[in-house]
Amino acid sequence: MIMHQFPDLHWLKNQIDQGFCNKQGWGNHRLDTTGFPSVIIHTHSEECFRPDIKGPISLFLNIRGESRCSVDGQTRLIKEDTFFITNRSQPYTLEIEKTRSLPKTPHLKKSRPTETFNIHFGENFAESVLNALLTPADRILDKGDEQDISFFRFFNQLHRRDPHFDTMISRMLHTDQHDGFDKLLFEQQLTDLLAYLLLQHREVTNVVNRLSPIRQNTRVELYKRLSHSLDYIHTCIGEKIQLDHLARISCLSKYHFLRLFKLAHGSSPYQYIQDLRLQKARDWLSHTQLPVADLAYALGFENPQSFSRLFFQRSGFYPSHYREQTK
Question: Which sign does the torsion angle of CA 99, 275, 62, 179 carry?
Answer without folding.
Answer: positive
